[in-house]
Amino acid sequence: MIEGPNGDENYYVLPLGTTLYHDKSFPEGHDRYVVYLNHKGAIAHEDVPMKPEYGGSFIDPLWLANVDADNLKDIFKRFPLSKKDIAAAIKANEITKDDLADIIRSMPD
Q1: Verdict on whether the full-model pTM lies above 0.70
Q2: Among 12, 2, 56, 67, which Cα is nearest to 33's?
Q3: Which among 44, 51, 63 has a CA at the least distance from the CA of 4?
Q4: 56, 50 in Cβ contact below 8 A?
Q5: Terminal C-alpha separation, the chain
Q6: Cα angle at 44 between 65 and 17, to 5 degrees?
Q7: pLDDT tens-digit map of 27-74
Q8: Cα separation, 20 vs 14, whole angstroms
Q9: Domain parsing of the chain, residue ranges
Q10: Torsion, CA 13, CA 15, CA 16, CA 21, rounded to 10
Q11: Backbone conformation region of residue 9, classed left if phi is above 0, alpha if psi is from -120 to 50, else beta
Q12: CA distances (Å), 81 to each of 76, 84, 86, in order?
């Protein structure tokens, strides 16, 4: 799960199978990873003025976290799913009726 830039309160996910390359460990207890992307054509962008404090390089990383049940609950509270959304997700993932029955049985009353 990737936090949106500048605290925009959106979350994003990397496609399944995306390779993360370890870049650096920090003493504060987090790590930085790199994802390489190919892009065709010119990238629409704004120039970042290079300030002396950047030391010739400006890195503005986004925060990345594993998705767990608590994260999903928080996200679905802010962005509730409709019956149509849930049905589309189930069909896209080829979940069977038996799978759904198991899921429903495992839910608290």
Answers
A1: no
A2: 2
A3: 63
A4: yes
A5: 29
A6: 35
A7: 999 999 999 988 899 888 887 777 887 777 777 788 888 888 888 888
A8: 10
A9: 2-81
A10: -90
A11: left
A12: 7, 8, 6
